[in-house]
């Protein structure tokens, strides 16, 4: 009798459990099911990611196996994103994209570790590091900004967030993130908006945007760009006693901008040493590392590097707090 009573209680508990489960919030059940899948399985089961799955199968290095293990955040371009990528780059299909290039582009969408949307929005903006690398093996950077939705590298918006997997998380985005140039980051990061205005001024004889967009294997790339933030330009205007950069004549502005670019070298912050002479497109400046990396121009003005190693495919950017003068 006691055993029969105990069995009845067990059955009642099981019935209660399954009733609660069947009546539970669909989102909770969905989350449980999603988390039992790998990143690759989530991609395979999302109809709008079928182009991504095809791309993973065509790329060098069996990238699909990468997304089965480890712990990663995948920024997953939807089908429209890949269609747009193919059109913009003159490819008829994903099969026409060189496998090595496809692999590198896909790795530019993979971040090590789990980064959910809450972590992104709480940071507001900043740089992450992807699994893609430049020709020297340095991992490429990724810029994100959440001031108006979540946007990556200034072009791709987050359209579906937080698909949790057993080995990380998936965010669906609306554009393929091409391999970034140094121009990509200066345009995407609002801290460089004044620099962009200077580089694109109508009367400049030098095509700085064109030059700095040069492929990584083509002279004069790679580049090292010492990029003054907006406050640095504001300080220069105060120093010169002028209201705007428009007051600076073209030859002077051209010369000043060239002092912020090194051609043919991807110089990381760790490469800087005390009294190191750096030859820019405009002339020589001196780097120092003691007390934090800094640059000294011919007038003795010191520019501190406040953000280092923003790594593009064709060079690296270091943000500085003072404009370098000839």
The helix tally amounts to 13
How many β strands by DSSP?
Answer: 14
Helix content: 25-40%
Biggest β-sheet strands, sense, barrel: 7 strands, mixed
CATH architecture annotation of the largest domain: Roll
Structural class: alpha+beta
Strand proportion: 15-25%
Alpha carbon gyration radius: 25 Å
If you consult CATH, what is the topology of the largest domain? FAS1 domain
Average pLDDT across residues?
Answer: 91
CATH class of the largest domain: Mainly Beta
Shape: elongated
Set down the secondary structure blueprint.
Elements lengths: L1 H22 L2 H10 L3 H7 L4 H9 L4 H4 L5 E6 L1 H10 L10 H9 L2 E3 L4 H7 L1 E9 L5 E7 L5 E2 L3 E10 L2 E6 L8 H7 L4 H7 L8 H5 L10 E6 L1 H11 L9 H9 L2 E3 L12 E4 L4 E5 L5 E3 L5 E11 L2 E6 L6
Parallel strand pairs: 1-7, 8-14
Antiparallel strand pairs: 1-2, 3-4, 4-5, 5-6, 6-7, 8-9, 10-11, 11-12, 12-13, 13-14
